[in-house]
């Protein structure tokens, strides 16, 4: 079995790839890896509290390795901090990071360069899959997720905070990827087959980032 770490955003794609790995006897999942903001104590872009990410890991019963970075971290600081985490993984016998990327080549190239410098490998089990099929399978498996973030240039504001379900997919504007792979939206998964129990939460108000382009909804642990 290959020891692996799963890159974890708390959203649907990382939950879906984790589900696939858990049913593959070739992999020994050693934990989850999340990059967070030490200033806001949230996951950047998803803007989900790190408390909820830790709650997910607890319900999944896997250790969470959190790499906290200052909000204004340079690429050099980002890369150096991740390299230190990768060194820890290697020293404990893990050389592979699993990513849930679907088709964005530039992101994959960036990851591969960073991993190569650290003497690590990347694997992409969902790469090249039809995103409509991924979205439908995710929902059919019984996963439950909330849309935490939308790009207001791509989606109407009323879609933030909606459940990620068939109705949400049917109401997506033309040209929006059903998995939000181009950054149109992000999600938080709170229940499904990888969890031992649901993640309790309540919805709060909305807030904006990046000069109002991205609209988020507050998800509060409960």
Automatic annotation (TrEMBL):
From the broadest rank down, the organism's phylogenetic lineage runs:
Bacteria, Bacillati, Bacillota, Bacilli, Bacillales
Q: Which InterPro entries match?
A: Diphthami_syn_dom (IPR002761), Rossmann-like_a/b/a_fold (IPR014729)
**Which residue numbers delimit the Diphthamide synthase domain?**
4-218
Write out the GO MF terms.
Answer: ATP binding
State the protein's name.
ATP-binding domain-containing protein
Pfam families, from UniProt? Diphthami_syn_2
Q: Give UniProt keywords alphabetically.
A: ATP-binding, Nucleotide-binding
Q: Which organism is it from?
A: Pontibacillus yanchengensis Y32
